[in-house]
Records
---
Amino acid sequence: MKKLLALNWKMNPATYESAERLASASADLAAKLKKYEVVICPPLPWLDDLATKFRGKVKLGSQDVFWEEKGAYTGEVSPVMLKKSGVAYVIVGHSERRRILQETDEMVNKKVLAGLKFGLKVILCVGEDIKIRRQGKKAVKNFVYNQIKKDLKSIHDSKFAIHNSLVIAYEPIWAIGTGTPCHPEDALKVIKFIREFLTSDFSLPTPRVLYGGSVTGKNILDFVKYKEIDGALVGGASLNPSQFKTLI
Ligand code: PGA
């Protein structure tokens, strides 16, 4: 399976024109990467147009999804709508949504199940905050284990294809947008642990597990050189074409 480079633009750029320029530059560069699948996750208002314009060139992902198919849910977007727009991936449980919008594991769990049910590939974000990191490696592993356990609750009851459709992004919160990534060997330890317990305790096929948090062109190889790290979730460095070029 190819490694994955997921580009989380967050709430940027400000206009459709600049989003299209950035997507076009990113798609051209991504075409050079034979061993990687590249997914651009732009803000929602640009998603449908970009998915149409770049069909067959680069994959598109949404930064969020709601768990219901349709109905009275003001402001939400359903997995069915995303699928119909040609969106391939959806990011679920990003720490900014958990922290700023108070998304709970229960909500994240519903989103994971809904995404898979309607044929979207789900990138589930997990990771500890600085307080837990300071408590040591055991606390980090416990936290990540419990978070994934809650976020994937009932996944076995679902009849949806999990193989190849579930991606976990290990993103320590303290490393996101700070310019201080996790030490690659520490990230590797947590990622190996995630891979192991998903197959042993959860009997799931090993999903791709990415690293995210201050990934740039300067440090990406320190992470993806390991066979256990299946790619990266990149925020800031995906917004600047010259930084993105170094990354590629
Ligand atoms: P960053 O963001 O690369 O800017 O640290 C990563 C993310 O939030 O997914």
Note: The chain is about 40% helix and 15% strand.
---
Amino acid sequence: MAKRYYITTPIYYVNAAPHVGTAYTTLAADAFARYHALRGEASWFLTGTDEHGMKLEREARKRGMGPRAFVDEMSARFREVWPILHVRPDDFIRSTEPRHMERVQKYWSRCVARGDIYLGKYTGLYCVSCEDYYTEKDLREGRLCPVHDRPVEMLEEETYFFRLSAYAQRLLDFYERNPGCIRPETRRNEVLAFVREGLRDLSLSRTSFSWGIPVPGDPKHVIYVWFDALFNYLTALEDGPRHEQFWPPDVQLLAKDILRFHAVYWPAFLMSAGMSDAELPRTIFSHGWINMEGKISKTVDESSAARRRRLGTTDPKRIAEILGADILRYFLLREVSFGEDGEFSHVRMIARARADLSETVGNLLHRALPFVTKYFDGKVPYAPRESLTDVDTAVIACAAESAKLAASEWDAYAPHRALEATIDLARAGNRYFDENAPWVLAKNGDTARLATVLYHVFELLRSVSVQLWPAIPERADALRTQLGLDALTPRVDADLWPLPWGGLAAHTAMAPGEPVFPRFDKVSEAALLRDLGVEDDVVERVPAKQKARTQAVEQPSSTDGSPGVIDYDADFSRIDLRLGKVVAAEKVLKADKLLKLTVDLGEPGGPRIIVAGIALSYTAEAMVGRQIVVVANLAPKVLRGITSHGMLLACGPNDALSVVTIERDCPPGTRVK
Ligand code: MSP
């Protein structure tokens, strides 16, 4: 039987509309679900809305509505936005649905039967936005909630308690036996530290409002929203075959704001309801914040809201309308290291899509397709196996390696690295294209070799289309259409991850068309940014984070022509510096300053060509065997008819340059940092 894969997002509060932050978790979950479905697994992806509690009751009243009408309207906004973002949940649960409410009461009764729920009195400081009590020491100065910066309220109520204190040791034992149950490691350590301090019993019901699930047998109490909400992951599967197939979740995604609820309360509730280790969620994965000069959230004060408005819209629907949903998806999944915080910026979003998608993947496709129209009647050219050269087999190996690497990164919840491996493959495809110069083959009438080269380019792009599909399904399918392939449709038990080389059948009709990815030239970029609501001065001063930091240390940038202070995450980490070994070198004809270097960067596709302006300082022979430092992710550039795939580092005057090297031997490809 096929492996099954069950993934969840938090159910979102409906007190405000979806934004880029809530979209982040949901589209990441969608990408993981798609990846696992592509691998032939039976995948189930659940999202939904959290609709009970004092906060929602108050918000509805503020708008002059009853809570039911209010949550209906707001929940619909979540349900509607997901397809626009190419998010395809298998189920969407609302905590106000009978299927949920009835089952929550059932689990409540189980915990009562276990002796874990008892009646008592609670006095405490309550944050309505968190729907949670705080102790004095957790609060910010002025008795403000540490998450929302809002005043907390003193509440006293008769309440049912959950005997959480009795679960501390059982939880610690569970974490110990299941090291992967809270990820990443730093978050796991935080949870361990929290539980080791000891746990207090948890207030589990409210009498101060009525918009919630009544406590069985005592309806003046409603069930605490977190007990109510957490059980959605279980109640949504209902009782029966779906529950049998999918419970427990393989991974539950959320951000650190609600880690404690998921990593402490939730397993304790399940244990109390009678579940064993094997029935508890396998991984709680806490990703970072998406920030835009502070965390993007719906509860922000007026001044930060005004400041943020100048940076452009955070409405995912609007972004999808203007740029296309896949551009947003790609940016968030590629640019942000999953598990760490990331800065949201429209300028960066466009820059990332331009560099990786338009100028790398799209560029390769749209350079290769015209040859097919002109020389092969618009059909996939035939490449006889026996005519393959070493460069062709190297490109085949490179595609296999990339598929393997990307798969292991998707498996490890590192979409940013998976996509990096995929784009590296497209880069290798561009190098292969340049080095085999199809335009020369066409001019010389070498149609057989031309066919082989083009076939390899298209087959490589087929692999890229599959690898991109979890992240950007719509554009990946558009790429496939032009290659003459069907859209991807996952099937249980069929592993569609890049099939062995040769998936593209010769002689099938290709369908060249409009650019698969927008071109984003300067003019269109400016217009798009205006539509996205980004103010002009913001565009000029990007990266905003860089400027903020620069000012903070009172170091005005560039009084002496130096670029000023940069930020590690936002700036430096984007430069891929690698150690390279020069395996061959020759002078570039009719160019005094240029050497053509063949540099091994440990890449499966073989060495790269780098053209370097060092010929006045080094002979070709002197360069062979040297270890050099290369900017490996620089856009390719043609110099004297040769495409250079990177740049080496050197310093000094042009005729006495000194090439940057390292002191001890390191394998080619080692990251320089
Ligand atoms: N209703 C509760 C969850 C109950 S789950 C049993 C809740 N809802 S929420 O609407 O506030 O959503 C919080 C979640 O939304 C975060 O944990 C995270 O998954 C996502 N995010 C909201 N803003 C975000 C960012 N700015 N950045 C990253 N994730 C964001 O809490």
Note: The first strand starts at residue 4 and ends at 13.
